[in-house]
Amino acid sequence: MGRRVELEFKPPFILVKSHSFSAVFDKIARYRVVGIFSWSSLILIPAIAAAGLFLLLLSLQALLSRPEIQEAQREAGPQSLLLIPGLNPYLPLLYGWLGLLVALIIHEGAHGALARRLGYKVKSSGLILFAVLPIGAFVETDEEEMKKGRGRDVVRILAGGPTSNILIALLSLGLIVAATSGLQPKTMIMVEEVISNSPAEAAGIQRGDVIASVNGRPVTGLSILAEAINNAGYGGSIVLDVLRSGVGVLRLTVGVAELGAGRPMIGVRLANAEIQQWASDYLERYKSASLANPLIYLLPPTFRNSLHPFSEAQICIDSTAPSPNCFTVSNLYTHPILGNSYPVIANMLYWIWFVNFNVGIFNALPIYPLDGGQIFRRTLSTLFGSRIGEKGVRAATIAVSLALVGLVLSLFMIPYIALLA
Questions:
Q1: Which of 34, 148, 237, 293 suits 177 as a labelling partner, its CA being 20 to 30 A distant?
Q2: Same domain, 232 and 140
Q3: Is 245 part of any domain?
């Protein structure tokens, strides 16, 4: 038997080749859904390419019309447009490589499964490494067989890669939206001081107690507590659930009195009320904005003006004070099922969405030799090859590819050209 894994050096890259996955592709190819997927890819690939072109033009328009975006890109550097974790300052190492690895496996796996479904050989498959880092993947088919194959079949094989990336991206995005919809602000309003001879002192409230709910309603903001106190009025009472360190949850009935401030009070001074209210208000705005404008999911949580609820950005209260009180955004929220692990799971899903979406969109563009470019050339040859000949097909493919490459390069150059204007 031959070797199952081979290393091929193509400086500065290392190709890790395996012949083991051909059997895996054969098994996957037998499923009927793979055939349905192949026809769906044929239909969806023009829409994916059109979406990619639209986003390129939208990015170009934003760069040309908004100097603050030009400045932000200059600060981040041209590497901010490259989908390489660690090099791109917005793409985190761990989550970025996870997303990229998923994208590569899904993309090339779709090519391999569809090739076998349609009767084409898969000679080998594997990863492309730069040093020890995976930067690409490949499925090696028989080139001569592909050249002689039916145009429709070859296009289905090529279209499967970008389409699979987009489908995985949309699945991950759906899971993010579903998880975010169940998100809740953490309970953070804490008793900083109990006023002597107040109803709060009489009820047994202590310094350090965290107010979790009032009259059975979660206290996600100071306004909820204030509303309950005002509704109770002088001589009335409220029921508080408080979290006490080392004890757990206590339910206390607290009276409401006039303590000299001209309004009903229970007699406590509170800490973290402002950040608790901010977290509650922001979460509501975020949920509304995400439904109204899904494009916010294209702005990574690592971007300074992007505050996803799973972001590691810092929010500071009294930021001008000598010692401002700062909180990490992701630590302000919890999930009824995922609990405090929500930020990790949300970030994993986000970067799988983000990387797969970008890989799928970019590969669908008619830039040769990307999948989209090969599809474009094969389609031109099938439809117009008899009229314009293969030289004409080649010239048209090169012209479209160069135009789109120029568009992509303009995104790198415009922020710096603008300095010369």
A1: 34
A2: no
A3: yes
Choose among 413, 411, 378: nearest CA to 397.
Answer: 378
Give the pLDDT score at 1.
39
Which tokens in the block code for residue 237? Answer: 């009472």
Please give the structure tokens belonging to residue 225: 């507590």
CA 86 to CA 109: how far, in whole Å? 25
pLDDT at 15: 77
Complete DSSP assignment for 311-345: ---EEEESTTSSS-EEEEGGGGEEBTTTBTTHHHH
Are residues 162 and 197 both part of a single domain? no
67-76 vs 32-65: helix axis angle to the nearest 10? 110
How large a percentage of the chain has pLDDT more than 70?
96
Give the residues across from 252 on adjacent strands.
240
How far is 220 from 212, CA to CA, in rounded Å?
Answer: 8
Please identify every stretch of the chain with a pLDDT value under 70, giving residue numbers as ranges.
Answer: 1-4, 10-12, 131, 135, 318-322, 421
Question: Domain limits at 213?
Answer: 190-271
Q: What residues contact residue 245 under an 8 Å CB cut-off, 6+ apart? A: 208
- Same domain, residue pair 389 and 252: no
Report the alpha-carbon distance of residue 135 to residue 164 in Å, rounded: 18
